[in-house]
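Retro notes, item 3 of 5
We never archived the inputs for the BIS(adenosine)-5'-tetraphosphate complex last cycle. Fixing that now. Sequence and ligand:
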Amino acid sequence: MALAERVVLLGAPGSGKGTQAERLAQRCGYEVISTGVRLRKEVESGSPLGKQVAAVMASGKLVADELMIALVKSVLNELNAGQRFILDGFPRTIAQATALHGVLAELRSPLDRVIYLEVPEEELVRRLVARGRQDDDEAVVRERLRVFAEATSPLVAWYEERSLLRRVFGLGPVAEVTGRIVQALEL
Ligand code: B4P
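Structure as it came back at the time:
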C-alpha cells in the first residue's frame, strides 16, 4: 500500500507530534522538519534568530508567522526532489498554512495528508508537566493550550475542507499510536 509522501502532523502541545514524527522517520523514511526542534537549537546556540525568539517561546506564545514561514520555506527549497517529508509543528496558523500551500504549489509537490493527533486536554497537561522542558511549567502549558485552541485548531476545519485531514486518537502506547498513524497515511 502506498503511503502519503508529504505530510503535516497537527496536534496540541504534548499530543506526541515530535515523538511520532521521529518514529515515522525510522519506520517509513520520512525527513522530519520540526519547527520546535529547529527553534530550540537556535536558542541554545545563541544565534540572532535564537535571541529573537527565546522569550516568546518561554512564554508559550507563537513565534511570528513571517519568521516561521521564511524558515520552513528555506528548508523545503533545499529538500531533494521526491524526498518524503513530515512537517512537525508547522503550520500553526492559517497564515502559515496558506503560505505553505503556496510554496508547495510552486514546487509542484502539494501535501497529500494531514494527520490530526487528538488527545484529551487533561492528558496533555499531565504529559507536558511530567516532561519538564523549560516551557513545560504548568502556567506556560495552559497558555500554550489556549494559543493552540485560538490560533491552530482552526486548521482542522481548513484541512478538512481540502479533504486532506485524518483524525488519529493519540492515547495509548506510543507504538500503537504509530500504527494508527501509518494506517491513516495509506493513500
Ligand atoms: P513544539 O516543539 O512543536 O512542541 P509541542 O507542540 O509542545 O510538543 P509535541 O506535540 O511535539 O509533543 P512530544 O512528542 O514532545 O513547540 C514548542 C514551541 O515552539 C511552541 O510553543 C512555539 O513557541 C514554538 N513554535 C514551534 N513551531 C512554531 C510555529 N510553526 N509557529 C510559531 N511558533 C512555533 O510529546 C510530549 C510528551 O508526551 C513527551 O514527554 C513524550 O514522551 C510524551 N508522550 C508522547 N506520546 C505519548 C503517549 N502515547 N503516551 C504517553 N506519553 C506520551
